[in-house]
Amino acid sequence: MEETDPLRAAREMRRAVLGDAYVDGVTADPDQAGRDFQDFITAMAWGAWARGGPLTPRDRSLLVMAMTAALGRMEEFRLHASSSHRAGVTDAEVDELLFQIAAYAGAPAGVSAKRTIKAVREAREEARR
Question: The Carboxymuconolactone decarboxylase-like domain covers which part of the protein (predicted)?
Fold first, then answer.
């Protein structure tokens, strides 16, 4: 994909929220099609984050977590839940989000999200030790 200012901004936002280690890992694909796919994901999804507007990175993080939980995409939910602090989301806000997920996406989505949050927090505590 052509290197443009919007793509650079999207890459910077992705790194700021998900961290260098994660981004380096998923973008190091030796396959050109894999690299092209990552550029597409970066431009599409992270371009929406980098474009500015009235939603803050915190708002966007909460929305992504709510949508991925509602869709049952727990791998993506875990990724964003693990990184949400970099976007300014507090544990208390995530706890409240779980109620919204359960109320609007159903109890199974809420329970899965709660389990994932518990595992994310346990891993975070283990890393601190």
Answer: 36-114
Report DSSP state, residue 84: G
Residue ranges of domains in the chain, CATH in brackets: 1-52 (no CATH), 55-129 (1.20.1290.10)
Q: For 88, which DSSP code?
A: T
The structure's pTM equals 0.90
Q: 17 with 87: CB under 8 angstroms?
A: yes
One-letter amino acid of 58: R
Three-state secondary structure call for residue 52: coil
Burial class, 30, CB count within 10 angstroms (exposed 0-12 / middle 13-18 / buried 19+)? exposed
Model confidence pLDDT, tens digit, residues 83-123: 999 999 999 999 999 999 999 999 999 999 999 999 999 99
DSSP 8-state secondary structure symbol assigned to residue 72:
T
Q: How far, in Å, CA of 122 to CA of 41, rounded? A: 29
Cα within 13 Å of Cα(66), Cβ side: 19
Environment class of 10 (CB within 10 Å of its CB; exposed 0-12, middle 13-18, buried 19+): buried
